[in-house]
Specification:
By secondary structure, this protein is of the alpha/beta class. The chain has helices spanning 9-12, 23-28, 93-102, 121-132, 146-149, 156-163, 185-196, 215-227, 251-261, and strands at 52-54, 57-61, 64-68, 108-112, 139-144, 170-176, 200-206, 231-236, 272-276, 283-285. It has a ten-stranded mixed β-sheet. The chain is globular.
């Protein structure tokens, strides 16, 4: 498929446009290398479709589900593993809520997409209200890149809205960023505001060739996150989405980089290094 370029204004100002090897440039700007398709690459590399129980609801692990509540993103990351779903959105809130009420083993709901924060405050509030009314759901996790690429979205009205739910349920933001230059004063301000509202902040990153495939870069990233109140949660080995092989770090090198963090970096800074198993069998630690 043709994956168009989409870069919000805030992020475009962070890119060094005179340097085609700039890590932020590499993550955001299309490359001819995306036309290279390897035999092992897949449209649905983590096999969401095998675990879809209602439209947009993925139940892969016993105690949690993922809701793909939108197909929209603020930025088209060139390494995206869900490029194919950006063509349409099938999420059905009514059917999802019915499924969640029936399955009392579900303790956590993850809002994903696309990027959940692309939806209006009114729509996000509707989804959170429905989830908050289900007694056995205790945790609501929101996966987003917007605080990094379009921080102006986190308005006072948005913060006020979401804080209404942070006393009845544990609200967790998992913010996606991959390079220390993505830690900005705007992100630090958002972190401070959300933390003050009883919202837990975690991060997830992808190991990317030419972007962050060194212990030095990762150490700077993870320390910087801790300094602004965000706990590094997951470092992902790249999922084999079509046209992303130029970002792949060989597993032997990836393991060596991660191993070198131990003992040289405070344990509070080190995330779990995870890889997706084939055929939708879920994440396991790389080591």
């Amino acid at each position: 498929m043709n994956f168009p370029k989409l870069i919000p204004l805030h992020y475009s100002k962070m890119i060094d446009w005179n340097n085609p090897k700039d890590p932020l440039y590499l993550m955001a700007v299309p490359s001819k290398k995306e036309n290279i398709k390897k035999s092992h690459e897949l449209e649905d590399p983590i096999a969401d479709s095998l675990h879809e129980k209602t439209p947009g609801l993925i139940h892969r692990y016993p105690d949690r589900v993922l809701l793909k509540i939108t197909n929209a993103c603020a930025i088209h990351c060139r390494f995206c593993f869900r490029k194919s779903i950006l063509e349409k959105n099938t999420f059905n809130l009514e059917k999802a809520v019915k499924y969640l009420r029936k399955h009392k083993e579900i303790w956590e709901v993850i809002l994903s997409g696309g990027d959940p924060l692309m939806l209006s405050d009114k729509r996000i509030e509707e989804i959170l209200r429905n989830l908050s009314e289900i007694p056995h759901i205790k945790t609501i996790r929101i996966h987003t890149r917007i605080p990094v690429v379009a921080p102006e979205r986190i308005t006072k009205n948005f913060t006020k809205m979401i804080s209404k739910f942070s006393n009845s349920k544990k609200i967790i933001f998992v913010i996606h960023l991959n390079h220390p230059r993505e830690i900005t004063k705007e992100l630090a301000k958002i972190s401070n505001i959300l933390s003050s509202k009883n919202i837990m902040l975690l991060s997830q990153s992808v190991l990317l060739k030419g972007v962050n495939d060194s212990a030095k870069t990762l150490s700077e990233l993870f320390r910087g996150l801790i300094e602004i109140g965000i706990k590094p949660y997951y470092l992902h080995q790249l999922d084999p989405s079509i046209g992303t092989s130029h970002f792949a770090v060989p597993l032997t090198k990836a393991r060596a980089i991660y191993k070198s963090l131990r003992g040289n970096l405070s344990g509070i800074c080190i995330p779990e290094f995870m890889i997706e198993q084939p055929k939708g069998k879920g994440k396991i630690p790389v080591n």
